[in-house]
Amino acid sequence: MSQRAALAGVVAALGASTTYVAALVYELAVGGRGDPYLIVRDVHFGYYHRVALAVWVGLVAGLLAHMHLDTDARRVRVETQLTRHTLWIVGLLAIVSFVCP
Amino acid sequence: MSTAILRLLESVHGHLGALAAVALLHPAILLWRGRPAGRGARWSIGLTALLTAVAFGGGILIYADYRRVVKRALFREDMTAGFLFETKEHLALVALCLCLGAVLPALAKGPEGEGQRRLAARMFAGAAALAWLLGALGVWVHSTRGF
């Protein structure tokens, strides 16, 4: 497996995670928080919808990254940036998940 | 599914999640300084990813019944616990993505793969931190209401 493909996989994973949380925030921003007592099980497919959307966007982000990372210089730059910022991104996603449950 | 089976699956899901939280620490520590993964470390990486995926899959398996049986009652009993469960769902997906995304860079070989292994270690560490948080949230929610 090439390093380029591995790095594209990392971008896909972080892209999917970020997309999921962004979709969550978007849903709350547009629709507001519904009354939890009115939850109807048959129409509550928000979770599956967000997961599917996140997987698709993650895959597209991974493919784009794979196309973009065609030189060693680019690969090293992205790798360094991701190593430096990954834990911050995770922390941010966790905080947003708590604020927008 | 009957309530007894759901309780069993819920328990198995919780135990696998706890195991995954511990297992995720192992590749994070092994790869932190970017050293190449030996045979044992490669097994550790693969099994950790498998365990995390199975724990997540267990949660997905019982999610539909959770919505049907538990969710409304949970919100009625304790609104905070209900929303914490929602947070747990979100964080679980992020932890799974981080873990699976870290597998390929963790297996990078040679000195030129050092940066990728360091990156993989950070991703495993992030996934481990989230998994521990998920465990705490799971215990909180379950102590309020389960199947």
Observed structural traits:
heterodimer, A: 101 residues, mainly alpha, 3 helices, 79% helix, B: 147 residues, 5 helices, 0% strand
**Termini separation of chain A:** 37 Å
Mean pLDDT of chain A: 86
Number of domains of chain B: 1
The helicity of chain A comes to over 70%
Beta strand % of chain B: under 5%
Tell me the series of helices and strands of chain A, N- to C-terminal.
Answer: HHH
In short:
With 101 residues, chain A is mainly α. Chain A has helices at residues 3-31, 46-68, 72-99. The termini of chain A are far apart.
Task: Describe the overall structure.
The complex is a heterodimer of chains A (101) and B (147). With 101 residues, chain A is mainly alpha-helical. Helices cover 79% and strands 0% of the residues of chain A. Chain A has three helices and no strands. Chain A has helices at residues 3-31, 46-68, 72-99. In chain A, helix 1 (3-31) runs antiparallel to helix 2 (46-68) and helix 1 runs parallel beside helix 3 (72-99). Chain A is elongated and about 55 Å long. Chain B has 147 residues and is mainly α. Chain B has one domain (3-144). In chain B, helix 1 (3-23) packs across helix 3 and helix 3 runs antiparallel to helix 4.
